[in-house]
Amino acid sequence: MRHALENHRLSISINEIGAELASIVNLDSGREYVWQADPDVWGSSAPVLFPIIGMLADGKTMIDGQEYRIPKHGMVRNNPNLELFYHSEDRLTFRLCYSEETLKLYPYKFDFRITYRLRNEHIIVYHEVMNVDDKPMFFNLGAHPAFRVPFIDGEDYSDYFLRFEHKEAAGRYSVLPNGTVGDVTRPVPWQDGNILPLTHELFAKDALVFKDLSSRSITLESKITGPVLKMDYAGWTHLGIWAKPNGDFVCIEPWIGLADTPATGGQFMNKEGLIELEPGQTYEMSYDIKVL
């Protein structure tokens, strides 16, 4: 089931399963911005990543001396148990609370909420993580929205690029064959320091993972027709850029944390970027998509 919001500029819809952003339509042009989850290529549109990002090494981790098997990208993605918690004229909030089933995968009691707010040409996505346990809880958090490329019929994938807010010299960390992240950087084909041209070959070895960018906003642009949309992600510490090599989309993924790395050593508490939240406290983080 999908839930929708609309204003004078845009219409958006959210899948109740996984609370994924499934559609952004420009009401003037009728154009769709979000990848439409073709299952023959990649059957998602915008997974929500909690309490892990990516893969655990060997699919498992140790927490307080016990083994847990948290699925790839965590427990919100593809989850049919989210409820529509709040619906108003300009926002939708979805909620997932801990259960006996989640405790078998992840031993913390949480109340997770994600809100989509539609304001003029902006879609603002708010995350709230509440610790309802009697002990500190630890987690990573991430977003994974996929945008159509090419956006205009008749253009090619290679007509598009990502414009970073600042000039960058950062290298990319590699995603290893087991889905974890390596600890050695590889060069990035920057142009003019802040332009990343899009090609299908760019993703032949999975995502580009960044830990040390100075930019906190990225614009998706066409060399032919100009800017498409802008994402602002102030406060997020890591970034992934990804697509399937045969997929006509690009994911711009703000993260706090990473998949397992060699330094994790199978111990959850060693995961990079881990957020610690005290009992009774709430963690909040958001990002903003602006249609241009």
From TrEMBL:
<comment type="subunit">
    <text>Monomer.</text>
</comment>
<dbReference type="InterPro" id="IPR037481">
    <property type="entry name" value="LacX"/>
</dbReference>
<dbReference type="Pfam" id="PF01263">
    <property type="entry name" value="Aldose_epim"/>
</dbReference>
<dbReference type="GO" id="GO:0016853">
    <property type="term" value="F:isomerase activity"/>
</dbReference>
<protein>
    <submittedName>
        <fullName>Galactose mutarotase</fullName>
    </submittedName>
</protein>
<keyword id="KW-0106">Calcium</keyword>
<dbReference type="GO" id="GO:0030246">
    <property type="term" value="F:carbohydrate binding"/>
</dbReference>
<dbReference type="InterPro" id="IPR014718">
    <property type="entry name" value="GH-type_carb-bd"/>
</dbReference>
<dbReference type="InterPro" id="IPR011013">
    <property type="entry name" value="Gal_mutarotase_sf_dom"/>
</dbReference>
<dbReference type="InterPro" id="IPR008183">
    <property type="entry name" value="Aldose_1/G6P_1-epimerase"/>
</dbReference>
<dbReference type="GO" id="GO:0005975">
    <property type="term" value="P:carbohydrate metabolic process"/>
</dbReference>
